[in-house]
Amino acid sequence: MVKKLCHSFVTLKQISTTPYKETPMAAYTAALSSFTYDSVVIDAVGNMSISIARPPLDVTQVGSANATFLTGVSTCAISLDIFYNLADHVKFTDSLLNASTHNFVFTCATSDTVIGSGYVVGASIVATNGDVVRGSITIQVTGAITINTVASVAGANEP
Question: Within 13 Å and on the Cβ side, how many CA atoms surround 27?
Fold first, then answer.
């Protein structure tokens, strides 16, 4: 059923009276991105995500018919999936065991950067028989972060 449906879509697209035009969009590629922690470039980063949130504060008065909110305090965390090697990732281990804060810089291939400081709050190292050792590292950002964006031309950042 799925195969037939896909074939029908292609057929409809081909006989459409409106010409199909693909519009190029600017997209980030992580191919040349890097993550630096305490001035050490961290090797073998498979995935990285930054979560930034500003949860609202409920300040609704008792008996009010409508909720009222104020802007909350910003919070940020970084998750890294790495191919773990103790020699290459000793900064994470030190930060976790000693509860020490270190500066970080995430640099995209486009030269966009996210800069701040944080400490490791979690590490999960998994060794599966016959596979590489993988790790998931969570860094809690403390204080402000700086996001620097470099202007780019549409489509220039595509792989």
Answer: 8
Quickly list H helices, the chain.
2-15, 90-98
100 alpha-carbon distance from chain centroid: 22
**8-state DSSP, 72:** -
Q: Residue 73 pairs with which residues in a beta bridge? A: none
Which residue has tokens 């800069």? 115
- Distance, CA of 108 to CA of 29 (rounded, Å): 8
Give the Å distances, CA to CA, from 42 to 29, 38, 80, 96, 134: 18, 10, 10, 16, 14
Architecture of domain 2-148: Beta Barrel (2.40)
Instruction: Give dist(CA 49, CA 159) in Å, integer.
Output: 19
Residue (of 116, 103, 107) closest to 150 by Cα position:
107
Chain centre distance of CA 120: 16
> Tens of pLDDT along 54-107?
999 999 999 999 999 999 998 999 998 888 887 778 888 888 888 889 999 988
- In sequence order, which residues have a C-beta less than 8 Å from that of residue 150 and are 6 or more positions away? 110, 111, 112
Q: Tell me if residue 151 falls in helix, strand or coil.
A: coil
